Amino acid sequence: MDRRDLMESTLEPGPAALGHGPLRVPALTVVFHPHPRRVGQVALLASLVEGRVEQLSRTKPLFARPGASAVDGEPLAVRHLSREPATLTRNGGGVTVSPGGSPLRVDGAELRSPLPLRPEALERGVVLELADRVVLLLHLAGLGGPPLERLGLIGDSESIDLLRGRILRVAPLQVPVLLEGETGAGKELVARAITAASPRRTRPFVAVNMGAIPSSIATAELLGHARGAFTGATEPRQGHFAAADGGTLFLDEIGAAPPEVQAVLLRILETGELQPLGSDRTRRVDVRVIAATDQDLSAAVAAGSFREALLHRLAGYRLRVPPLRERREDLGRLLLHLLGSELEASREPAAAAWWPRLPAALVAQLTRHDWPGNVRQLANVARRLAVALAHGEAPRPELLPDLFPTMATPVAEEPMAPRRPGRERPDSEALRAALRIAGWRTSEAARALGISRSTLYALIDASPELRKARDLDRDELAACQHACQGDLARMAERLEVSQRGLLLRLRELGLG
User: What is the CA radius of gyration of the chain?
Assistant: First the structure.
């Protein structure tokens, strides 16, 4: 099926309809794979547009780097995956996922029967976990064009590619740029990318957080001051505009600038001249201003807290920086990069050596999260993971509420049976009975008991009568693994420990 044929073929109308603008087709992006080089590879499922069935297994489909030809792709090739495929079929404007031979979880819930996914779900991105080894994101993707310059930005999502294109378009111009986006989305990184692609790349880049400058000294900080301009000004000092002369001045959190500072900024942008505090001389400066905000400045203008004329001066070109939840397919790439940076900073081995120790379920949970703090919040999580990994620990998904308080309520947590008011927490015998009935699958046991999984894990940890997988030694595990021929469910029942904990312990000892 060539590109022209694809352009004539569309999914049925809906929020993700392909009838307008660049053609978008369902795609699978590798978020986690035991081999880190595979993270970020993509399989475009273009045949779904024609109504054909796509298979998902150890051998199909083929995944390749974004922009590369599918013929250069490779299968997932993880031996724990079955060759009996799960299937994906077109369902109006959406996709139906049907189970195959490998355990498959869709947005955190085990898939036992065909599940239709609406176009809105594909727009957001649907997290698929295969056999606790691979995490994929099912989403919509454009067919793409020639690769763009990376500009120091991590990711290959449509959102980040669109951002790269707009950066390259505005970078050579001399107009001021207003970056709009949520906190932690990476606005300063975008400002540096604009500068690096501009004729001012070798000139100064000065970053100023307007929200961190007290209003009483903001004017002196921006314009500089003469000797004796105020008490304590024993020496003249140039301000941020003078320091950025010939280069770029990045004004972060511009919406926090007080009214008197807004007036100063407006005058400089209109005249190109500044007058240091306490001086009777003016000087011309050649500064390109890039401002950033997480506020709605148009609303601030309407409320009277921001000058309309200043907004017009700053917004010569407005550029939106997408939040992380709009580029979920980049999460694996970002996490791998951030982990590598943290481990390198602490002089630990490269991230590639630690990556396989991350539980796939943990990465899936991270992918489902909405990230109100965006990339900055993900960087904090990567820092905590790096510390755990450097100490030989394998972070468990069930500990996320303790490790990462902002993630105490995961986006796609399994449904939990309502707990009756006044019901006492189960004792050790009740826990053991529920776990035995559930085949030592903690999610099912928690549901049967009417408690959350995190509560169940806490009760297991607090019960001296219940055995914990982390207490099992290598010899006992190896013997049980041999006797049960590696069947995890049989091993869990025989050892009377949770399947999840057993799996993590096996991985920890290199027996997984």
Answer: 27
> Measuring CA to CA, which residue among 273, 284, 205 is closest to residue 243?
205
Q: In degrees to the nearest 10, what's the CA dihedral of 401, 404, 405, 409?
A: -50
pLDDT digits (tens, 9 = 90+) for 175-223: 999 999 999 999 999 999 999 999 999 999 999 999 888 777 888 889 8
Task: State pLDDT tens for residues 39-88.
Answer: 999 999 989 988 899 999 999 999 999 878 777 899 999 998 998 999 99
Residue with tokens 């943990």: 362
DSSP-assigned letters across all residues of 32-66: E-SSGGGTT-EEE-GGGGGT--EEESSS-S-BB-T
d(CA 129, CA 364): 7
Classify burial at 26, counting beta carbons within 10 Å of its beta carbon; exposed 0-12, middle 13-18, buried 19 or more: buried
Name the band, by pLDDT with cuts 50, 70 and 90, for residue 389: confident
* Residue 288: HSE in the Cβ half-sphere, 13 Å Cα cutoff: 27
Q: How many CB atoms sit inside 10 A of residue 146's CB? A: 5
pLDDT tier, 500 (very low <50, low <70, confident <90, very high otherwise): confident
pTM over 0.90: no
Instruction: Evaluate the omega torsion of the peptide bond into residue 61 and state whether it is cis, within 30 degrees of 0.
Output: yes
Cα gap 325→196, rounded to integer Å: 26
- Nearest CA among 470, 471, 454, 460 for reference residue 430: 460
Cβ proximity of 142 and 165 under 8 Å: no
Cα gap 501→479, rounded to integer Å: 17
SS3 labels along 474-509: HHHHHHHHHHCCCCHHHHHHHHCCCHHHHHHHHHHC
pLDDT in tens, 357-373: 889 999 999 999 999 89
Name the β-bridge partners of 319.
179
- Write down the H helix ranges in 171-230: 187-196, 215-223
Q: Is the dihedral of CA 50, 56, 60, 65 positive or negative?
A: positive
| Residue 372, phi then psi, degrees to nearest 5 | -60, -25
Name the phi and psi angles at 189, rounded to 5.
-60, -40
Coil/strand/helix, residue 394: coil
Name the pairing type of β-strands 54-56 and 177-180.
unpaired
pLDDT at 418: 40
pLDDT digits (tens, 9 = 90+) for 93-126: 899 999 999 999 999 999 999 999 999 999 999 9
Q: How far apart are CA 403 and CA 380, in angstroms?
A: 11
pLDDT at 10: 31
